[in-house]
Amino acid sequence: MAVSLITIEQTKSPISEAYRTLRTNVQFTSVDSKTKKIMITSSGPREGKSTTVANLAVSMAQAGKSVLVIDADLRNPTQHKLFQLGNFEGLSSFLVQDEEGKDFIKETTVPGVKVLTGGPIPPNPAELVGSQRMKRLIEKVSEQFDVVLIDTPPIIAVTDAAIIAQEVDGVILVLASGEVNKDYAQRAKEQLDKVEAKILGAVINKADMKTSEYYYYYYYHGSDDSKKKRKGRK
């Protein structure tokens, strides 16, 4: 099982709780309208968007949802690594072949989560994700799964994310705390606004957990060992 799937390996950790909170917040956006097709992007590279996609998928599945993860970052596909899957075929293969999308969707070790990996890196990613075949795929799988999470390249770097943003119900923007440039974050939002994307919210990633909130959380939700230590000090 992938090390990055902290929502499985450390279910009681503050980070896992944060993903559950994100899951709940996303559900609240569906009160007046369905929010099934969700794109996750970032302003720049290495902000943790792909890890956020994978862990959010697991968290949603743990709540009883059927989830499909589509790795639409055809320039740097990562989901197959996070879920420890093969990537000889995937989204890029489907988009250039006359076959059913279900033929490329893979089972994972996580109940309720399936993944359409990125596949071989193509020479024309933007053209592929902007194709009618991609649009039809997103619509079709949204009828088959409770939630579809789409991992895309950073919104500022290339046009891929802006293209896909027009085909989904909402967008989550991942920003690395203490690393992302404020101007970059603003530009990312402006790019999404230009295509009239519905921004569900932003995830502040890589935040310093060694704070009072961290210890406050563990006082009430910590491991059995930590509770025993507190009991012994009383």
Describe the 3D structure:
With 234 residues, the protein is α/β, with parallel strands linked by helices. The chain has a single domain (36-225), classed as Rossmann fold (3-Layer(aba) Sandwich). The protein has eleven helices and seven strands. It has helices at 6-9, 14-28, 49-62, 79-82, 91-96, 125-129, 132-144, 160-165, 182-194, 212-221, 224-233; strands spanning 37-42, 67-71, 106-107, 113-116, 147-151, 170-176, 199-205. A seven-stranded mixed β-sheet has the order 3-4-2-5-1-6-7, sandwiched between helices. β6, α9 and β7 (199-205) form a beta-alpha-beta unit. α2 crosses α3 (49-62). The longest helix has 15 residues, at 14-28. It is globular. The model is unreliable at 212-234 (pLDDT under 50).
List the helices and strands and how they pair.
Blueprint: H1 6-9, H2 14-28, E1 37-42, H3 49-62, E2 67-71, H4 79-82, H5 91-96, E3 106-107, E4 113-116, H6 125-129, H7 132-144, E5 147-151, H8 160-165, E6 170-176, H9 182-194, E7 199-205, H10 212-221, H11 224-233
Parallel strand pairs: 1-5, 1-6, 2-4, 2-5, 6-7
Antiparallel strand pairs: 3-4
Helix pairs in contact: 2-3
